[in-house]
Amino acid sequence: MTDIFTPAVLGPITLRNRVIKAATFEARTPDALVTDDLIEFHREVAAGGVGMTTVAYCAVAPGGRTDRHQLWLRPEAVAGLRKLTDSVHAEGAAVSAQIGHAGPVANAASNRAPALAPSRMFSPLGMRPMHVPDEAEIRELIRAHAEGARLAEQAGFDAVEIHFGHNYLVSSFLSPLLNRRKDRYGGSTANRARLAREIACAVREAVGDRMAVTAKLNMEDGVRGGLTVPESLQVASWLEADGALDALELTAGSSLLNPMLLFHGDAPRREFVQALPAPARWGMRLVGRAFLKEYRHRGTYLLERARQFRRELTMPLILLGGITNLDDMRTARAEGFDFVAMGRALLREPNLLHRIRSDATTQSACVHCNRCMPTIYRRTRCVYRPEPLSIENIGGKNL
Q1: What DSSP state is assigned to residue 116?
Q2: What gap in Å lies between CA 30 and CA 126, rounded to an integer?
Q3: What is the pLDDT of residues 239-284, one digit of tens each?
Q4: Which of 6, 33, 53, 197 has its CB surrounded by the most CB atoms within 10 Å?
Q5: Is the pTM of this model over 0.85?
Q6: So which residues are the catalytic ones?
Q7: 210 CB burial (10 A radius; 0-12, 13-18, 19+)
Q8: What are the contacts of 14-17 at 24+ separation with CB within 8 A?
């Protein structure tokens, strides 16, 4: 098994193994607070053997949610989150909170708050122009990330993962396509990276060495004019030099413009049309083929890009994308990656890690159909996995 299933250090914490449940938005907080259903989701993954599970996604402001049902970090949420972290810890795993602001991916109509973008844009989700924050508002956003990390610490989390990917707010500032600002947060790569660096340092200052701090960073957006690998490498080198992060999880793609670059496999266009409300449904019918491109699924499909980061950086790196069996994990370790992150495979089989430990030849039952993607609008799940018989675990009470 090499060292995949031996304890590994991540900043100030030690995980029981090198496998992390990646952030996969759960859609189990209908009133923007923790439910029994959300707790069970992460307890089950922890019981299945991962070293750490990631709660996704914990917005740092009410307007930073993708919709109004999403969890956001405020004092009222701490008690429920503490029950969640206690449940995960009881199964022997650590737990991380993915914190961030959705920025242009936020649904302003649902949130009843303006979506934010680095430059003037029209929101196809909220069907209205987005708000461009000035420097005073940017300072408030930085403060909100630090406060979100402090609340996560109060709730018993072992780590926070700051969302710098997928053209959420910070990622949109990194994008030359989306960021056309003329102030010190736009223009050069250094200016566009300023927000990411300031947030990372603010979060580290807020939690000190009491929690691990990681970030999910786009290696590339996968759209013409967006962030590219060479620029992202430069951003990553600055983040490493700042010393605020314990690890980077490397990702790719744009929730706004090219989401399938992250997922690979089948593009579930028909299922998205069925799941989306109007007018988004009509838009998906018109542009679904261009928006949901297809990329052939293969093991460790982000490795070629990530390998360039491993060559240039010395800090710990987490490999994401197409890791479904022990061979994929061994490949990642042989390439120098410190941890691996798994998403869809654990939606299909929360106990996959225990199965792999029992039998090294175990293969994931995930078929990469990506039909789990449209379920984020109601309750994220693998469509091939039976729903629980008890209605108490669907939605559940707010905590």
Answers
A1: B
A2: 19
A3: 999 999 999 999 999 999 999 999 999 999 999 888 877 667 777 8
A4: 53
A5: yes
A6: 168
A7: exposed
A8: 15/51, 15/52, 15/93, 15/94, 15/339, 16/51, 16/92, 16/93, 16/94, 17/49, 17/50, 17/51, 17/353
